[in-house]
Amino acid sequence: MTIWGMGQAPSDLNMSKEKFMNYVKSCLIITMLLGVQIGYSQCDANGDGDLNIQDIVIEVNCILTDCWEGGSDTTDVCVDIDGNVYETIQIGEQLWMAENLKVTHYNNEDEIAYPSNEDFGSFDEGQYGVYDNDSTFADIYGNLYNFAAVDDDRGVCPDGWHVPTDEEYTVLTDYLGGTSVAGGKMKEAGLDHWNSPNTGATNESGFTGLPAGYRSSTNGAYGNMGNYGYFWSSSDGNSGYAWSRRLYSNYSYVYRYSNYEQNGFSIRCLRD
Known about the structure:
alpha+beta, 2 domains, 11 strands, disordered N terminus
């Protein structure tokens, strides 16, 4: 992906920092005046054909990361519809988000439902929660989504990204040496977020898996933060179940299993 509609990055244009910042300011003005067509393609930062908040975030992020000086690989930019910017990591031939998804809207800007505890656990309506309904957890651990949100055609992952299939998770764990050791390579090291002993955790993959816990389909209760990280794939299992992956504080392996689609799990997105 090139973030410049004319196919030229700032380094290609040999812009000074001052000129580039003026260029971006102009783009921001055009982007906010969504009806204006002059300079449209140059300001369509993510190349999706629309000017919106995602383009503003990418353009501002380019200033903050000195991308005009080659300090940032703009092909790795990952921004959701809410404007959240995610770290990314290349693992083998796959480009992953290195953080859990925390978006609250589908890609068409419809809200994802955040029901009360008693109403959580739908098969049909996409839903999410924040652990213990405490918004401070969202920035670190992301949100916990039911499978209906994963499976919704409106899309939860940023444009150009998707919820990985069961097979794509297998590609990841195979690349990391198999399920018996991949968990340790995927987990954030140390005890800042994982409970002891955080067995085998090296995070040598850069995946930075976190123990966000889950939201139960039974009364929307939350559990297991610090002990387990649960991640949806986009692949259905048997009726009412879908494939997922689990990381453990006391094991270094990754567990592949199908789970109730009404439960709330973390989501990691994968580049298309």
